[in-house]
Predict the 3D structure of the following.
Amino acid sequence: MHKNKEYPEKIYNDVQEWIFGAEIANRFTDEAEKHIPDYWRVIELTINILKNNLPQDGSIIDVGCASGNTLLYLYKQGFKNLFGIDSSPEMLKVAGKNLSKVDKNFASRLFQSKTFVQNMTFNAVLCNWTLHFIPERQEYLKAIFDSLVSNGLFILTEKTLQSQIIENQYILFKQDKGLSNEEIERKKQQLEGVLVPLSVRQNLELLTKTGFSQVEIINAKLGFVTFLCIKL
Ligand SMILES: C[S@@+](CC[C@H](N)C(=O)[O-])C[C@H]1O[C@@H](n2cnc3c(N)ncnc32)[C@H](O)[C@@H]1O
């Protein structure tokens, strides 16, 4: 049971834990644009970095590929050696539908799994807005690191711990996107214990401990932070 902070007299006792099911999958882009600061900016930055640093036949996997927005964008920029992984069958169904419009065989390169792929190597691994949902973060990061070739790139975006000042600005961001206070509070409650943010410092420590000796912050907005990591 949860109290609504905006309307303290109102009690939510029907709030269900957040899941990436069919309802979200079918309207994922709208949901992402309304809740993720710099959603498209980070995707564009990711693609620009890959275009400038990878050959066009470089292998790239998008972890938590969701509805396939990043993979589709990469494909349109000429990258063809692309893979996606996501734990949600409903998300992958939407991704498969979107990506089959450009390559009818794309669905065979989309993997449904809660754990990272084995026995594959990549020039780049992308993990935007996904690792914070994965309880076994360290194991997952280690598997990503091991899959990268020497000088391979890892781009990670995480929601990090927000101070009250930043959380208030984040609420304003969502209000600007047209969300009601009730919708904002409900999603916050749904994500409790499902999306687990770490501080920026903890993320940096985790990445360093995993073996990434070069880590840079390349974007940050209202606590959503993008790290560029290189496996030297
Ligand atoms: C916010 S979305 C990611 C958005 C996406 N990267 C993009 O650029 O549009 C988070 C995704 O992570 C997926 N996810 C959650 N836990 C996962 C896990 N253990 N392994 C892979 N994907 C996972 C969800 O199903 C969801 O599609």
Q: What stands out?
A: The two ends are 48 Å apart (CA to CA). The chain has a mean pLDDT of 95. The pocket of S-adenosylmethionine is lined by residues 20, 32, 43, 63-64, 66, 69-70, 85-88, 91, 114, 128-130, 133-134 (CB under 6 Å).
